[in-house]
Design brief:
The structure is a homodimer of 232-residue chains. By secondary structure, the first copy, chain A, is mainly alpha-helical. The first copy, chain A, folds into three domains: 48 residues, Homeodomain-like (Arc Repressor Mutant, subunit A), CATH 1.10.10.60; 134 residues, Tetracycline Repressor, domain 2 (Orthogonal Bundle), CATH 1.10.357.10; 44 residues, no CATH class. Helix content of chain A is 73%, strand content 3%. Chain A is built from twelve helices and one strand. In chain A, α6 packs antiparallel against α10. Chain A is elongated. Chains A and B meet through α8, α9, α10, α11 and β1 of A and α8, α9, α10, α11 and β1 of B. β1 of chain A pairs antiparallel with β1 of chain B.
Amino acid sequence: MRDALVAAAFRLFLERGYEQTTVDDIVALAGVGRRSFFRYFPSKEDVVFPDHERCLADMTAYLAASDDAHEPVRRVCDAARLVLRMYAENPSFSVQRYRLTKKVPGLRAYELSVVWRYERALAEYLRARFAGRADGNLRADVIASAVVAAHNNALRSWLRSDGQGDASATVDHALGYVQSAFAAAPAAAAARESAVGAEGPGSPEDVVVVVARRGAPLWRVVQEIETALARD
Amino acid sequence: MRDALVAAAFRLFLERGYEQTTVDDIVALAGVGRRSFFRYFPSKEDVVFPDHERCLADMTAYLAASDDAHEPVRRVCDAARLVLRMYAENPSFSVQRYRLTKKVPGLRAYELSVVWRYERALAEYLRARFAGRADGNLRADVIASAVVAAHNNALRSWLRSDGQGDASATVDHALGYVQSAFAAAPAAAAARESAVGAEGPGSPEDVVVVVARRGAPLWRVVQEIETALARD
């Protein structure tokens, strides 16, 4: 019945416009009562984004199932991919909704509040992982926000292409940029420490030398540093 | 009259609560008519954030007055400081509003939409600066979002401290983190090219060697790379 309500709602939104469609119109087309609608959806906005609550719950559970072995920036990137997967499950529905949301200010506001909740879920996880470190909360907030921005940049470019092309590859590329910008020094340090093994952790005087082409973009230089540190 | 309306509105919001206060209550206390209210404020939400439109206009003008000599990431950080300045101009009002906004979901939604507009202003500037470069739009969106997140992290910590302490120093520190994460390779390259002068730009085979303490955090390594490139 939930799916039937979503289908009826979208048929009407596309035919008449979102503002011109009432909940009564939707339940009449779906052949159910008003109470059934509100059992599934608190408001008309919610029928436009029927899967975000489930996706937010999945993301929270995914992050809660992390352990200290997960590199935190990579982990939030993987968590963000859950959102992409939800959109990619049903490309034509996602593209329709994207077009609708662009036209209706109320839906854009709703979407901003959903995006904010995803971002907070990622930030809370990172805050816990960075707890006790200098600028832990600041880093957590900035990285969560950068991950969401990269994910949404890629998601929107896929939606604008009418859901053609490889959404996963686009998102992977975008998230790769964020991962290189916030390359995880602590994780690299941990990798180093396990690499030196019985010799004990390196002294602060130890050096890493990175040689890079002068024309290389900085993010690539950072990536090389990470690789060097991990190999060290 | 505008200031009188804001003062009357906040007095009532604090006494009765935001939801319990009507525009009629506000104009009655301020001793003006309803039309005067709506001449200044499109809605009740707008009286809570009376200075954002001016600040957005200032930010847009500030960014429009940039030239190519401005390092783009630094420039958007400086643009974000305009928002801080607006809050810091009137600490007690800003703290009152922060407490009010936390309690009223409608105001939080409004605030999200304002934050989104600041973020888009920064992103549009960066998109233009990065135009034609690989991943220009992606980088622009991610950096704009990171700048806003850092600014807001610092702003909120200042507001939570009841507007005590040095707001500028807190925001400078937060924005410094973003600047180091997104150290601007293209600007550094431009600096290099002007430094080599008559010898022409460096060939792609030229190398930069970075030597860093192994225990140094990655952002500090990046900062050193930037300095090295600028000095080169």
